[in-house]
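Reagents: none. Just compute today. N-acetyltransferase domain-containing protein.
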Amino acid sequence: MPISHVQLPEDANGYHFGAFLEFNGDEPVAVISVFVEAIPIPEHQHQAAARFRKFACDPRHQGRGIGTKLLQYAFRAASTELKASVIWCDARLSTSAWYEKRGMVPFGQTFFKGPVEYVRMKTEDINQNVRLDREVDPQTGRS
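Predicted 3D structure written out:
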């Protein structure tokens, strides 16, 4: 996939994080970007909010807790660096259960981006709702 497919004009205004394993060299095994962006719920417009996008984990490293650890790190950064009290995302409907296990809840109607169905998800307690089920060994990438 060309880099132009994932670059957005607002990328320069975001915080970008990656998970790296010693044996994987300079290539990240997971990435996430966080932006200051109001949550699209009128009654929550007064809250300081952040949105995460471009969250991905290499399929060869999924199921090891790496994505959860990176999400937890991004949530803490949103809270401390961006002073966000709520964080949200557009999640593929097929992955919503994964986010729910990490304390997020769906809101609003589902919608499509091309052929893929999405749902918006949020958490209002950034530091408490993301729980790490297991630690990850940085050398092997295994829990």
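Helices lie at 66-80, 96-100, 126-129.
Action item: order primers for follow-up constructs.
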